[in-house]
Amino acid sequence: MQIYKVGGAVRDRLLGIPVTDIDRVVVGATTEEMLAQGFRPVGADFPVFLHPKTGEEYALARTERKSGRGYGGFTFHASPDVTLEEDLIRRDLTINAMAEDDQQNLTDPYHGQRDLEARILRHVSPAFAEDPLRVLRVARFAARYAELGFTVALETLALMRQLSESGELQALTAERSWKEISRALMENQPQVFIEVLRACGALKELMPEIDALFGVPQPEAHHPEIDTGAHTLSVLAQAARHKQPLTVRWACLLHDLGKGLTPQEEWPRHIAHEFKGLKLIKAVNERFKAPRDCQELALLVGEYHTHGHRALELKPSTLLELLQSFDIYRRPQRFEEFIAACEMDARGREGLEQRSYPQADYLRGAANAARGVAVQPLLEKGFKGPELGEAIKRERLKALKAYKEAASA
Predict the structure, then answer these.
(1) What residues contact residue 215 under an 8 Å CB cut-off, 6+ apart?
(2) Other C-beta atoms within 10 Å of 382: how many?
(3) CB atoms near residue 203 (< 10 Å)
(4) How far apart are the C-alpha atoms of 71 and 78, rounded to whole Å?
(5) Is residue 58 part of a domain?
């Protein structure tokens, strides 16, 4: 029995960056031998075990062959005679197909170290094109390592394009797709994920609503970058730069989908794009079964982001409606995330990345003014039921009028 560290643990050590996950492969062992040493089996599809003391994962060396469509369409074979090289060749990228023993002796049959030094993401073998999930994985790695200068090899991009055109991407489950998308959005340069998907034709297959934004112009006065797709990528980049959570990044990605529906004769204006985009945002949310908080914020940002930009001009009654839509009294964090998404949208414009966004503090102040209305005095006056609701609304409107006057003074 021989045990090796493989994949990301080897890759990241050689890159000199912190190693977070350690995967191990076991060569020359049987399931029975692993169980006899106290390892606990956890793999449903192939033999994976947890170490009896550390709880870390150990997988038996295995081969695989394509047996059906999609990410799960593979038959695995694990036995003591499977070599380390045979196990490594089934992996996606050369930089993930290296192994090392406990003395850090490197096994690198597919030249992963050379590609690390050249900053290239390259597939290990033609079998890469058998697994559609690898399109998303490579795009995610491109986003993760973009800051280090990594790019996707042209021949790998060609295989990704082949996969995109094959229809295999449609076989991916919503859960697997979302896992990759959500991880990619939390990388330091998530816009690169979208760029790579677009470059290989996968964006058109997976998120046609976003792909449709490229080539759609916006008024240059508000959007020096003009192209709506380019703007969306810039907004996403700003969200990452400002360390925004996944909810905000997802909303930033989807906020302008309605502009993809504007007839060409109306370009570069996009009247009512906020409302037109809601059905598209809902469709993307449902396609990937995004978590509820991501879905809700994306819809709210899509509908109200222009309200956020015009906050200082809004009438107190409109401002109150906005605050009510976000349920700021019970969900204060969601309104904070809305403000953040609006600010990222404002900054995601060519040459305006450092602009101030006074609307943020103004909206926070308005929310505090509305929340500051005390309910107890109204109860003491005898208001109850629907009448109490109306009385609270009147007092909040009064508070917002006073707030607006004070802010304008």
Answers:
(1) 227, 229
(2) 9
(3) 23
(4) 19
(5) yes
281: its two tokens:
């945002």
**Hey, CA dihedral for 337, 339, 344, 345, is it positive or negative?**
positive
The CA dihedral of 107, 113, 116, 118, to the nearest 10 degrees, is: -160
Q: Is residue 381 part of a domain?
A: yes
Cα–Cα distance for residue pair 193/201, rounded to 1 Å:
12
Query: Residue 324 CB: number of other CB atoms within 10 A?
Result: 13
CB atoms within 10 A of CB 170: 11
* Two tokens, residue 247: 């909810």
296 occurs within a structural domain: no
Per-residue tokens: 234 = 């810039």
Nearest in space to 122 (alpha carbons), one of 152, 142, 82, 86: 152
Q: Half-sphere exposure of 275 toward its Cβ, with a 13 Å CA cutoff?
A: 2
Count CB neighbours of 33 within 10 A: 14
The domain in which residue 402 lies consists of 376-408
The CATH number of whichever domain residue 45 belongs to comes to 3.30.460.10
Show which of 81, 110, 139 is a domain's final residue. 110
Boundary-marking domain end, from 58, 77, 110:
110
Q: Which residue type does 73 have?
A: G
Residues in the chain: 409
Q: What is the pLDDT along the chain (409 residues), one digit of tens a residue?
A: 899 999 999 999 999 999 988 899 999 999 899 999 999 998 766 689 999 998 888 999 988 776 555 555 556 788 899 999 999 999 999 999 999 999 999 999 999 999 999 999 999 999 999 899 999 999 999 999 999 999 999 999 999 999 999 999 999 999 999 999 999 999 999 999 999 999 999 999 999 999 999 999 999 999 999 999 999 999 999 999 999 999 999 999 999 999 999 999 999 999 999 999 999 999 999 999 999 999 999 999 999 999 999 999 999 999 999 999 999 999 999 999 999 999 999 999 999 999 999 999 999 999 999 999 999 999 989 999 999 999 999 999 999 999 999 998 8
Give a yes or no: residue 272 inside a domain.
no
Whether omega for the bond prior to residue 268 falls within 30 degrees of 0, making it cis, is yes
Report the number of distinct structural domains present in the chain.
2
Do 128 and 92 meet the contact criterion of CB atoms below 8 Å apart? Answer: yes
